[in-house]
Amino acid sequence: MRPIALLLALSMFACKGNTPTPTETDTDTDTDTDSDTDADTDADSDADTDADTDADTDADTDADTDADTDTDTDADTDSDTDTDTDADSDTDTDADSDTDADSDTDTDADSDTDTDADSDTDTDTDADTDTGPDLCADVITAATGVGIIATGDTTLGAANLTAACQSNSNNAPEQLVRWIAPTTGEYEVDTSLSAISDTVLSRITACDDTTSLACNDDDGVGFRSLLTLSLQQDEEVVLVVDGYGTNQGAWTLEARYADESDCGDTVDNNGDGLTDCLDPSCVGETACIEVDCTDGTDNNLNGLTDCADPDCDAVTECIEVDCADTIDNDANGLTDCDDPDCATAANCYESDCTDTIDNDGDGLTDCADDECGNDPACVELDCTDTIDNDFDTLTDCLDPDCVDALDCDADFVDILTADTCPVAVPVSAFPARFVGRNAGGTVWGTPTPSCSISSNSTGAWYTFTATENGMLSASSCGSTFDTEISVLSGDCAGTLTCEGNNDDSSAVCGSSASTRSALTVAVTSGTTYEVYVGGFSSATGEYELLMDFVPDASDTDTDTDADSDTDTDTDADSDADADSDTDSDTDADTDADTDADTDADTDADTDADTDADTDADTDADTDTADTELLMITEVVDGTMSGGKPKFVEVTNVGSTTIDLSAYSIGTFFNGATDNLRHITLSGSLAAGASIVVQGHNDDPVFNTVYGFEPDFDDMGQFNGDDVVVLMLGAPTDPTGAGAVIVDVYGVVGVDAVPSSGSPEVWAYTDSYARRLVTASPTATFDPAQWDIGGENALEGAGNNDTDNLPVLQANTTPGVYPN
Predict the structure, then answer these.
(1) HEC states along 477-522?
(2) Which of 325, 440, 538, 610 has the most C-beta neighbours closer than 10 Å?
């Protein structure tokens, strides 16, 4: 258990000490009229400034601005040839006869002897009330309760404060968060889910009182921060989320109940509603161990007595020592093979999957028993022979063993039906997926154009006509042999022109499928294209062709709306303004002749010609292409008996219906990269709809918990430390080769719960992870897009089915997104 210590660093924030940086304007509003500028400027400045300014300012500004400002504001760009013939014949005869004879004789005999002995000692005692930035203006209000309470981005804040526990100078902006404690108890407030890698987290008295009450730098994950706070119900907390040094970026703030500080005081110390040994944080504490497993007493007061308490699992009296005597030896209510202690007993599992005997007495014999699921004798070896090879009563494609068999693929098209160009398979929608075999096909079929293809290649043809400009991509990464792909334009009945060809593309298909092919070519609206997939040289096998089309983003919809607006504006505008202004201005020039001739010809042609051709083609043509976005939105590792239910929710967050048969979903186990188990999806999914994919052998548990059946079953066994991948295409081997990951939960190649060391932030053992509504699909795991419950979040107080069921139902919502 972590020690509970209230981090009350009751110091002021160091240096700038969580006080505003010197951007203060120090307005000092106390008027301080004692300005005493008595610097004795009486240096006899009467230096006779009588500079005779009577410089005859009658500069006759009669600038005759009648410059005919006939500006014709008629914005009318319609070629308005307004020929304003304003014959302005202004003949300003200003006879200015000003004779200013200024005979000023200034005899200033100034004998000033100023003996000002000014000993003024002005002691300004005014208490400056500095007003810095208003830190309360942008405080973020956190969500109520616990969990993720707030998110933000410090780049949107300002560098006003420096945390008390920050050892270097603060150059990073921060943001303030106001949160209300839901109950009395101890809490942990954590930035570990933040995208910003190095944070500092502080608690201050209030947004307008930046006295530091607690501060932490690196107690969270990596260099992120964690504060432990002891709070009263409804107590307001003001937190400062800052970056260490110059670090800044997006952050996530999570609040949770801290560990129970005393597991034997009958007090709910952390306020989570669970007291002492009923609190999961007390597991393993001395006070919470059932010290005597036969005394009929609940020694650790956790509601479980003797063998019913997991502490007693290894005690002899609590083990089903005989799994065939029909006696409940350990008195736990479970007899013989029903007791988990007997899981490996010879009579409790189907020890021989070919002897036609129900070895474990469960009513299921040999391959009909789930325990034989991985036995070589229980695999449908041939999915086309109409024989039940593994005696499980399921034949060929009806057997789950054949889920990846080419002949059982809904997209399978026999090569012999499309091995010549004239019978090419039409492609009507994208993305598109096609599978088939090229064995027995015609070499190139007809015609036989030049496109760098092997002369003896056999393959299949596909065709489509582009309805807009864009890029066409085609790949065969999921094929089982060395392939080639060609794209040609034209008609099979006429001339075909090679647009592109590819033999090997390890860059797209990966090193394990380096002999498979991929290419992208530009296509033009209205043109027909033929796509050929075949074998290099004479190679044959099973192929998977994936095709997609992306419209040209610069294709701005040329809008052929024949706007024949010939707005010729016949506005004759006969402005013949014969302005015969004979301004004789005989003004004896009584200063500055301001007769600025305001007759500035204001005939500014206000004929604003409202026919301003408003046919501005408001058809803003916001042609946005439909988007296809399939995304993992919930992952659950259940807590009912057997660790069930296990499921993954997938949602169409795009704007168009998705063909699910182009996708597959699976899991990588325990940090390995070569043990992928997957299933290929089928059917279609409308925009905004979700599906549920169940894990291996969940049987009826899912329906028991949620009251309905999942959409897909048996994507493979997984636990809360395994990676879930959503893929375009179907992988051809356990490494995932041949498929492209489009979304992922977890980090491929990493075990979320290693045998030593701390769990990864994305671990979901006996827990859940729910996608945030702001998320989008990504092939690189981003924990900031998820609400992650943390290990054991789905365990009830007693960690049994009765206690776990309501916790599951309250925290998981399969088939509903946002969750």
Answers:
(1) CCCCCCEEEEEEEECCCCCEEEEEEECCCHHHHCHHHCCCCEEEEE
(2) 538
How many whole angstroms separate alpha carbon 460 and alpha carbon 440? 11
Mean per-residue pLDDT over the chain, rounded: 74
- pLDDT tens per residue, range 127-151: 444 556 788 888 999 988 899 999 9
Q: Write the CA distances from 147 to 7, 165, 191, 748, integer angstroms.
A: 21, 25, 12, 26
What global pTM score does this model have?
Answer: 0.32
What residue spans of 164-304 are helical by DSSP H? none
Which pLDDT band holds residue 395 (cuts at 50, 70, 90)?
confident
Distance (Å, whole) CA 802 – CA 799? 8
Cβ atoms of 470 and 552 within 8 Å: the answer is yes
Tell me the CB-side half-sphere exposure of residue 639, using CA atoms within 13 A. 26
Q: Under a CB-based contact definition with an 8 Å cutoff, are residues 239 and 179 in contact? A: yes
| Strand positions, DSSP E, 318-385 | none
- Given the structure tokens 């990864």, which residue do they identify? 760
Residue 711 has pLDDT above 80, yes or no: yes
Residue corresponding to tokens 């989008």: 776
DSSP letter (8 states) at residue 730:
-
Helix (H) / strand (E) element for 472: namely strand 470-475
DSSP string, 665-677: EEEE-TT-SS--E
Residue whose C-alpha is closest to residue 505's, from 526, 527, 474: 474
Contact at 8 Å (CB) between 200 and 242? yes
Residue type at 23 in one-letter notation: T
Mean pLDDT to the nearest integer, 682-686? 93
DSSP state of 158: B
